[in-house]
Specification:
The strands form 2 sheets. Strands 3-4-5-2-1-6 form a 6-stranded mixed β-sheet, covered by helices on one side. The chain has 13 helices and 12 strands. The chain folds into 3 domains: 114 residues, Probable tRNA modification gtpase trme, domain 1 (Gyrase A, domain 2, 2-Layer Sandwich), CATH 3.30.1360; 147 residues, Four Helix Bundle (Hemerythrin (Met), subunit A); 145 residues, Rossmann fold, CATH 3.40.50. The radius of gyration is 29 Å and the shape is flat. With 437 residues, the protein is of the alpha/beta class. Helix content is 43%, strand content 16%.
């Protein structure tokens, strides 16, 4: 069955100088020729007058066409560059729809690119990540994945798994012959090396997820310890009210901040103190506790002469002593990780470096490959199956079991770039895309 021809604006809605309308499918040339006239030469922009069914000119535009499979989707594609008036864009699309074309679903152009072998699934996901990237590091990372760097690493791992499987399954074919010691040693070493490589990519993928989704850092401390001042300094604007009156911050104040290219959401919380009976302040403290569940790091803030608030030892935390501008006459709390003066901006650079390190990004960060939670899940499963294969080989429990573990490893890795049965997965992934991509 030939797929239907689809159309959608490829540029964002609203007024602009230019809007691009994309058409893909077997009827694209026919439909667009009836609206734009002669399309000219492939891959070359051509002036055209877009006309309605009555022959009236809707707009003067540029048009280009791409013959499949040498196009983004792998199908015949036409792109119309008209003026960016939403009324014009809608009129042009309505004319094209009248030629037996339908409106594209979200992400359908990229979905067709995947189905036609122009991109693997990891690269297709990188298209969406590139569009939604919120920092320069995220842009570079998405482009790295889109170019195939992440897929290349996955395919290299799959190739290694296949090599080990061939060796193990060949041994199964000769059950009467005892496996030589050196052959068993080779298989063990190969699985160990492969598990190490998967573990390294898993670690990098978790970092990629944090870069894509951002990390949450919660600032906890007693009243007047400088939490709101610190948030304002990190955000470089006055987001939180600063006052010497205890209990000023009642609700959570959130700020998404770009820390050296890494998106981090900081949460300023109500000061923690036991003696208050103010219901609003108590509610603020309750909300502070609730926001910790999905945090990557807790910044425990205090000042000279004041000990840390307790009850947060189970969370990954960084102990920061503030207000060094007041002098060192008072004793500082124990186990300080970073000393700062939020008021004077001292120690902030060191604090940022420590925060990035604690959430998985070291100093001198290079752009990792953007990853998704499903990539991490697949790599985690692959790592687990390799661990099982290693145990089977060590304890000589049977090559059939080892082969099955390696088969599952290969399947998990393959699901990242080219899942065997992917209808539900594709629907979930491409539904997140914008229409026209």
């Amino acid at each position: 069955m030939i797929p239907e021809t689809i159309v959608a604006p490829a540029t964002a809605p609203g007024q602009s100088g230019i809007s691009v309308i994309r058409v893909s499918g077997a009827r694209s040339f026919e439909a667009c020729s009836s609206v734009c006239g002669d399309l000219g030469k492939p891959r070359m922009l051509k002036n055209c007058s877009i006309k309605n069914s009555s022959g009236e000119v809707i707009d003067s535009a540029l048009v280009a066409f791409f013959v499949g499979p040498s196009s983004y989707t792998g199908e015949d594609v036409v792109e119309i560059h008209c003026h960016g008036n939403p009324v014009i864009v809608d009129m042009v699309i309505q004319e094209i729809l009248s030629k037996g074309v339908r409106v594209a679903e979200p992400g359908e152009f990229t979905k067709r690119a995947f189905l036609n072998g122009k991109l693997d699934l990891a690269q297709a996901e990188a298209v969406s990540d590139l569009i939604s990237a919120q920092s320069d590091v995220a842009v570079l990372s998405a482009n790295s994945s889109l170019s195939g760097e992440f897929s290349k690493k996955i395919n290299e791992l799959i190739k290694s798994v296949v090599g080990i499987r061939v060796f193990v399954e060949a041994s199964i074919d000769f059950p009467d012959e005892e496996i030589p010691e050196q052959d068993l040693s080779f298989a063990l070493t190969a699985v160990k090396n492969l598990q190490h490589s998967v573990g390294e990519l898993l670690k990098a993928s978790k970092q990629g997820v944090a870069l894509r989704e951002g990390s949450k850092v919660v600032i906890i401390g007693p009243p007047n310890s400088g939490k709101s001042t610190l948030l304002n300094v990190l955000a470089k604007e006055d987001l939180a009210m600063v006052s010497g009156v205890a209990g000023t911050t009642r609700d959570l104040i959130k700020a998404k901040i770009n820390l050296k290219g890494v998106p981090v959401e900081f949460v300023d919380t109500a000061g923690i103190r036991k003696e208050t009976r103010d219901p609003l302040e108590l509610e603020g403290m309750s909300r502070a506790h609730k926001t910790l569940n999905d945090s990557a790091l807790v910044v425990l803030l205090s000042e000279p002469g004041v000990e840390w608030v307790t009850g947060y030892e189970t969370y990954k935390n960084l102990k920061v002593c503030n207000k060094l501008d007041l002098g060192s006459n008072q004793n500082t709390p124990n186990d300080v990780d970073v000393f700062i003066s939020a008021k004077e901006g001292k120690g902030i650079s060191e604090l940022i470096d420590r925060i990035l390190k604690e959430i998985g990004f070291g100093v001198g960060l290079e752009a990792p490959m953007l990853s998704r939670r499903r990539h991490v899940e697949c790599l985690t499963q692959a790592d687990s199956h390799l661990g099982e294969a290693l145990g089977v080989l060590k304890n000589e429990l049977g090559l059939e079991l080892a082969a099955e573990c390696l088969t599952l490893t290969q399947k998990n890795l393959g699901n990242i770039v080219n899942p065997v049965s992917a209808d539900d997965l594709l629907g979930e992934i491409f539904s997140e895309f914008c229409i026209g991509k």
